[in-house]
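Protein entry
_____________
===
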Amino acid sequence: MTDYTEFQTTLGQDVKAPQSPEEAVLDAVPNPQAGTLAVVRFTCPEFTSICPVTGQPDFGHLVVDYIPDQRLVESKSLKLFLQSFRNHGAFHEDCTINVGKRIAEATKPIWLRIGGYWYPRGGIPIDVFWQTGTPPEGVWLPDQGVAPYRGRG
């Protein structure tokens, strides 16, 4: 059995939410299924950040799909990282790509994609997509399941 304590800064700890994405730590733990191609999905339907111009809240639905290699992202640290954007001023594109790049940096996945589906402000929804490259051939990639904007409900 793997001892995960050396990899954890959040799991099993009393940790306050980080005040910014730069302050947040993403824990990566050993993948017990390394060598097996499998898609892991994280969905954050209530992602929030702040408009850097107006200071008004922005709301998005993030979907992250990744194929882990040697490391998995630990979900509690991911939740705290995502929560750190609540007081962070950045445009939709920057938030979405920042989340994807930080997860990729922490886990060094075989492949990762993120879809940021943002609710409208000023009457325009913005959807942002980023991926690390081409997924391996033969891997089943489900649709991200978020319909084009029509009230998002």
